[in-house]
Write a structure and sequence with these properties.
Elements (H helix, E strand, L loop, with lengths): L2 H14 L7 E2 L15 E6 L6 E4 L5 E2 L4 H13 L1 H7 L13 H5 L11 H10 L5 H16 L8 H9 L2 H12 L7 H12 L2 E2 L1 H12 L14 H14 L5 H7 L4 E3 L4 E6 L3 E6 L2 E2 L6 H14 L5
Antiparallel strand pairs: 1-9, 2-3, 2-8, 4-5, 6-7, 7-8
Helix pairs in contact: 1-13, 2-5, 2-11, 5-8, 5-9, 6-9, 7-9, 8-9, 11-12
The structure holds 6-diazenyl-5-OXO-L-norleucine.
6-diazenyl-5-OXO-L-norleucine (DON) binds next to loops.
Protein name: Glutaminase
Pfam family, one: Glutaminase
Catalytic activity: L-glutamine + H2O = L-glutamate + NH4(+)
Length: 310
């Protein structure tokens, strides 16, 4: 990617910065509230390019939060296959908030609607193979390190502790799932693994590379090695389009038109199939939990470079 693209990206970031004040940094996990609402950065990794393009505050370190749900889903699919996984979670959007429990009680048999909402992601985490919670997390971290291409990735202890201390809603989801037989075993142990994978620290560089691997149907373009089976990339992309931006997924699909997953830290990972991976960070969130300036930036980028896949 040339100098011109870099200049265009810088201008796009400058133009979206004014949106930061329209959102609010998440504070329901107290340590997340330390992030700056003014931050906005982007990294764009084209398939086959050695040097990704960056602009704005792209070196900001943040936690994956719900973006990790894409990779726990893929790992669980690699562990068990589709049949087993879709007995425990559904394939449909909810239209509710990401931490909602309303449908678990209202809609029989209480199966989480999809693996991108908290209830579905907690059920998926419980299925990751491993003899202990430590082994399960080690496998998740190892997988994420491979996709991100960085063996040094780790989780942020402070964010993890902060979430553990304030996660009563996720605890209730876990026990509700167990009551309905969509999760087995020690709920607290499963939750610890879930909180840890949400707390894995990354930059936009990592997430753009992870999205680039998915844009390339799971193959590492450097050596042709399969990191993720194509079928599971396909499934993950469908969930990203239909539920990746929570109950703003329809709006995002219309305005931006590419599969994406957001997290409450303000990160978004987006895939342009066959072309590139993109990641933005902008901690100021909309009331639906998505980065306000990040979505604005992706929308303008999509329009300018005609990335909409529909
Ligand atoms: O379950 C939680 O509260 C977080 N660890 C993850 C939530 C999240 O990122 C939802 N996203 N928008």
């Amino acid at each position: 990617m040339g100098q011109q693209d870099g200049q265009a990206l810088m201008e796009l970031v400058a133009g979206s910065r004014s949106q930061c004040h329209k959102g609010k940094v998440a504070d329901y996990i107290p340590m997340l509230a330390k992030a700056s609402a003014e931050t906005l950065g982007i990294d764009l990794h084209k398939i086959g390019e050695k040097n990704p393009l960056e602009a704005g505050d792209s070196t900001t370190v943040f936690t994956m939060q719900s973006i990790s749900k894409v990779f726990t889903l893929i790992l669980a699919l690699m562990d068990w296959g589709e049949e087993v996984i879709f007995e425990k979670v559904g394939m449909e959007p909810t239209g509710d908030n990401f931490n909602s429990m309303v449908k678990l009680e209202l809609v029989e048999p209480g199966r989480p609607f999809n693996p991108m909402i908290n209830a579905g992601a907690i059920a998926i985490t419980s299925l990751i193979k491993g003899a202990s919670p430590q082994t399960k997390f080690k496998r998740i971290l190892g997988f994420i390190r491979t996709v991100a291409g960085d063996e040094k990735l780790d989780y942020d202890r402070e964010i993890f502790e902060s979430e553990v201390a304030t996660a009563d809603r996720n605890r209730s989801l876990g026990y509700f799932l167990k009551h309905n037989h969509f999760l087995e075993g020690n709920v607290e142990a499963h939750l610890q693994v879930y909180f840890k994978h949400c707390s894995i620290s990354v930059t936009c560089r990592h997430l753009a590379r992870m999205a680039m691997i998915m844009a390339n149907n799971g193959l590492d373009p450097d050596n042709g090695k399969e990191i993720i089976p194509k079928r599971y990339v396909q499934i993950a992309k469908v969930f990203m389009i239909s539920c990746g931006m929570y109950n703003a997924s329809g709006e995002f699909a219309i305005q931006v038109g590419i599969p994406a997953k957001s997290g409450v830290s303000g990160g978004i990972m987006a895939i342009v199939p066959g072309k590139m991976g993109i990641s933005v960070i902008g901690p100021a969130l909309s009331n639906k939990g998505n980065s306000v300036a990040g979505v604005h930036l992706l929308q303008r980028l999509s329009e300018k470079w005609q990335l909409n896949m529909f």
